[in-house]
Write a structure and sequence with these properties.
By secondary structure, the chain is mainly alpha-helical. The protein is 75% helix and 0% strand. The protein is built from 7 helices and no strands. The N and C termini lie far apart (41 Å).
Length: 181
Amino acid sequence: MCQSVFAKLAKRLEGVGDAAGRFPGGVAQLSRFYIHAHFGGLGVTELLTKFRDIRFVRYIGASVGALAVDVGSFLALMALGMLAAPASAIGYSLGILAHWLLSSRTVFQDTVAQRGMERTKQKALFVISALVGLGLTTAIVGGADMAGLDPRIAKLIAIIVSFIATWLLRSKIVFRGEPQG
């Protein structure tokens, strides 16, 4: 079932690239790469087994919390009369901050660097990983919109792709250190 959903999604996104041509194979190829890199063609049973990894489950929770801060801030600022672009930027920035706090304290707490230069480097890598997620989201939504697809559906797809990309970057690079304590 999971593979058929991903196959339908990939078929729908076939040939959708970004304006700069950075994804000549289209967003579908990029999405398949991330999905395969993380789930590797797992069946439903194997996929559910993967969710036993408590770190991954905690990361999902941290991501949901950060998304709530991002969207909640954005909507609140818009309700106060702020223009959409700055409200979006502020919301996204607060979401990154929330994700760092949640991730470093509940997800990767055993691999957070000690205070000082190593911690600063880790924070910078975390922000870079967030910007990779932002770039993927922008490319997917922009490419889909240019292709005449519903940008709301593209945004949902982008959330999934960005989530997988940032999970991989954060679990394999940002918080790759040996567990402490």
